[in-house]
Amino acid sequence: MNIHTSPLLRIAYSVDASAYREVPGGVVYPKSEADIKEVIEVVREKKTHLIPRAGGTSIAGQVVGSGIVADVSRHLNNILEINKEERWARLQPGVVLDELNMACKPYGLFFSPETSTSNRCCIGGMFGNNSCGSHSLIYGSTRHHVLEARGILADATAEDFRKYSIAELEQRFGETFWENDTENVPLIQKIYAQLIRFALDKETVERIERNYPDKSLRRRSCGYAIDEAIEDLADESKPLRTRTVNLCKLLCGSEGTLAFITEIKVDLDALPLTKKMALCIHCDTLEKSYLANLVCLRHQPDAVELIDGHILELSRQNGAQQTNRFFVEGEPAGLLVAELSADSQKKLDEKAAFLEKELTEGNKALAYCCTRVYGNEISKVWSLRKAGLGLLSGMKGDAKPIGVIEDTAVAPERLPAYLKEFNEMLSQLGLECVFYGHISTGELHLRPIINMKTEAGRKRFREVAYKTALLVKKHRGSLSGEHGDGRLRGEFIPLLYGTETYGLMCDVKKCWDAHGVFNTGKIVNTPPMDECLRFEVNQSYEIEKELPSDKMYFNWKAAFDECKLKQAAGVASQIRALMCSIEQCNGAGDCRKSNLIGGTLCPAYKVSCDETQTTRARANVLREILTRGWNSEAFAGIDRHGRGVFDIPELKEVLNSCLACKGCRSECPSNVDMTRLRAELLQCLHDAKGIPFRSFMVARMAAIERFGSAARPLYNFFAQWEVSSSLIKRILRFSPRRDIPALSRHNMRQLVEKENRKAAKPSSGRKVYLFADEFTNYQEAELGLTFARLLIALGYEVDIPQHTESGRAALSKGDLKYAARCAAKNLSLLEHIVSEETPLVGIEPSCILSFRDEYPDLVSKEKRASAKMLAENCLLFDEFLSREMKKGFISPKNFKDTPVEIWLHGHCHQKALVGIEKTAELLRLIPKAEVHVIPSGCCGMAGSFGYEEEHYKTSLKIGEMILFPTVRKAVSQSSPQKTVIVAAPGTSCRQQIKDGTGITAVHPVEILYTFTKS
Question: What pTM, to 2 d.p., does this model score?
Answer without folding.
Answer: 0.92
